[in-house]
Amino acid sequence: MPLPHQPSDLALLGRTWIEAWNSRDLERVLTLYDDNAEMTSDRIPLMGFDASGTVRGKESLRAYWGKALGLLPNLHFSLVDVFVSPDSLVVFYENERGKRICEYLRVNAQGLIVQGSANHLPH
Q: How many helices, marked H, and strands, marked E, lie in the chain?
């Protein structure tokens, strides 16, 4: 069984994830993800993607996030904190509209994100 990831490495991934999004460089963001990664969010169906709320694979992520970036020209994330476990992290951040979001990110043995879930307050 592979050794768990070091907490400092996962915390660094969280900060790198924020920096990648703030660069607005979608390819930079995608380098953090495995080719077969999946993402779940209540925003996915609202933007015309899978009704289940989950997109799978880097090409689907590229299409979804590409559309989102086009609709959010002022997108900016401010890191609040990063929480870690042996194979995942939660990035707690505030977006440009002042909304607080927790992004759960599970990583594989290579440290690439294989599963993500954006968690928003219910109101």
A: 4, 6
